[in-house]
Design brief:
19-stranded mixed beta sheet; about 550 residues; about 5% helix; 4-stranded antiparallel beta sheet
């Protein structure tokens, strides 16, 4: 590092190395109840996994003060390299002799192996400028290439970014004279990034098979695409930061427009080709949304401070280009609802049976009934922080999600077993009075003649309000610590906290409309098959600073 009066130059080198080795063994003896009905009873599998990750980043940072110290310039440039080595293999045996656990002794054997090697390389440069805290700007660019792309690790993709903010309260003394506005900062920003293809997408891969009792190879029915490109996204964001009464009241307003191009989608082949599909860059998507945050110290006194921060946001998506036919994905078929990928529509829209004929064009092909959308109409959260009697601190976070659609099979499964709470009730709207609710629901889906949801399983449109987090802490006064520990202990903080303690919802088809058996997939995540609700947790804390 080099320092002078108005300039400095530093070189930073960061790196990391991760190694993970795993071993798993499964053995199901022939006399196990679950094995007795199998065609080849007795099962064993030996699995080995190794993962090796490494990363290194080198960056040079040059800072300079100019124009008498009013202009602060920061220039940075560098490179980054990420590498991943994944190795997975297993030996599986069925029809094992009694008491034998070695999978290679099975009458039916199967081998599986997968090696994944990929490397990402990036080069970046950035220039930041701050003029007297009045004008703050940044421009930068990053070039990336990856072995996951279909260009054989030869092509760099460029991802620029830029931002500009004006601190209007620094222009003149009008803000000081008003005594009301303490911050007024309009801002605009633009940036680009990318999502890489899954490993192996550029290549047509081989699979292990058995031929005449010997191991062999055969091509998979998914064709590789050597022309595959990364999914690229650009976002334009503009907003306003506002502070009132010496920042006792703050607000942030943001609008954004995010465009994603070259989304990777499956292209299906005709059955006569012997192939099923390949992945191509077939779609573009746009996301538009709004975020509004307001923060206020409602009470600010010697003994009590109360900070309240409500947040409002929403997002709307639309597929603007699709070069493959419309398709349904996720879920368990159109009876219960699937995600529709179609140009001009939201990719999170959920549709299903029955197929209907649009009244606006009788000659148009039949379409699907719209059940709803996985994205909520809007979301709200309320964060509160209260300090009282100087050393107590209480905080709570509430979260509300308004009207989003869930593909729920839990009530289906309960109805099939006659275990639903209202299975034989008569209060279900639309019940014909001749069948129990549980039977009636299994035959009803979609919308009625007036366009309202029929009282079947779908759509399961839900809202919820949750107490996400709550905590209470007490900090032992400094005088007590000095008296008890003679400056050895600098601080003691004790408290209790909880997560997911309370939930209010109109969702009747399952336990929790937020949960999904398929995690956080972009399409198909909101599927409830009896998934357990988020666990309520209570934790006690003791923190000691020495």
């Amino acid at each position: 590092m080099i320092n002078k009066e108005n300039t400095s130059l530093s070189l930073k080198v960061n790196g990391g190395l991760d190694y993970q080795s795993g071993f798993a063994f499964i053995y199901l003896p022939t006399d196990l109840q679950s094995q007795r009905a199998e065609a080849n009873p007795g099962f064993a599998q030996d699995t080995r996994t190794e993962v090796y990750n490494s990363n290194i980043q080198v960056a040079a940072v040059f800072t300079q003060l100019a124009m008498g110290g009013k202009l602060n310039l920061t220039t940075s440039a560098g490179a980054v390299r990420l590498h991943r080595d994944f190795r997975y293999n297993y030996t599986r045996g069925r029809n094992l002799p009694v008491g034998v656990q070695n999978p290679s002794r099975g009458g039916v054997q199967q081998l599986g192996t997968e090696y994944q090697l990929n490397t990402d390389v990036g080069i970046f440069a950035q220039q930041e400028a701050n003029y007297d805290d009045k004008i703050i700007g940044t421009v930068g660019i990053r070039f990336d290439k990856s072995t996951l792309n279909g260009d054989n690790f030869n092509k760099f993709y460029a991802f620029p970014k830029a931002s500009l903010a004006l601190n209007l309260t620094r222009f003149g003394d009008w803000a000081t004279k008003s005594g009301i506005i303490s911050q007024l900062k309009p801002r605009i920003a633009y940036g680009a990034t990318a999502g890489l293809p899954n490993w192996g997408t550029p290549y047509s891969q081989l699979d292990i098979t058995g031929i005449g009792g010997l191991s062999g190879l055969q091509p998979l029915t998914t064709l590789g695409n050597p022309q595959i490109k990364p999914e690229r996204a650009t976002e334009l964001e503009y907003g306003l930061d506002l502070g009132l009464f010496n920042n006792r009241v703050t607000a942030e307003f943001t609008l954004y427009n995010k465009k994603v191009v070259d989304l990777i989608q499956p292209l299906n082949f005709a059955p006569t080709t012997g192939l099923v599909s390949t992945n191509i860059n077939a779609a573009d998507l746009v996301n538009k949304g709004l975020e509004l945050t307001i923060g206020a110290e409602v009470i600010r006194s010697r003994n009590v401070t109360w900070f309240v921060q409500p947040i409002f946001w929403y997002n709307r998506s639309e597929i603007t280009r699709l070069t493959i036919p419309e398709r349904l994905t996720g879920g368990f078929g159109a009876t219960f609802g699937q995600w529709r990928v179609k140009e001009g529509y939201s990719p999170t829209q959920i549709v299903g049976q029955p197929r209907i004929l649009p009244t606006t064009d009788p000659n148009y092909a039949s379409s699907w009934t719209v059940y709803g959308d996985q994205q909520p109409k809007y979301e709200l959260s309320l964060n509160q922080r209260i300090t009282f009697f100087k050393n107590f601190e209480f905080s709570a976070l509430l979260h509300y999600r308004n009207r989003f659609t869930v593909v729920s099979l839990q009530r289906v499964l309960f109805d099939e077993g006659g275990n639903t709470s209202d299975w034989n009730g008569t209060t279900e709207t639309g019940n014909d009075g001749k069948q129990p609710n549980g039977i009636y629901r299994q035959n009803v889906n979609g919308l009625d003649e007036s366009g309202k949801p029929k009282p079947g399983y779908n759509p399961s449109v839900a809202s919820f309000l949750k107490l996400r987090e709550v905590s209470l802490y007490y900090r032992v006064p400094k005088a007590v610590l000095n008296s008890a520990f003679r400056n050895v202990v600098q601080g003691i903080r004790v408290g209790v906290s909880g997560t997911n303690l309370l939930r209010w919802t109109d969702y009747k088809a399952g336990y929790d409309p937020e949960n999904s058996n398929f995690g956080s997939l972009a399409l198909g995540s909101g599927v409830d098959i009896g998934s357990a609700p988020l666990a309520r947790r209570m934790m006690f804390h003791v923190a000691i600073d020495l």
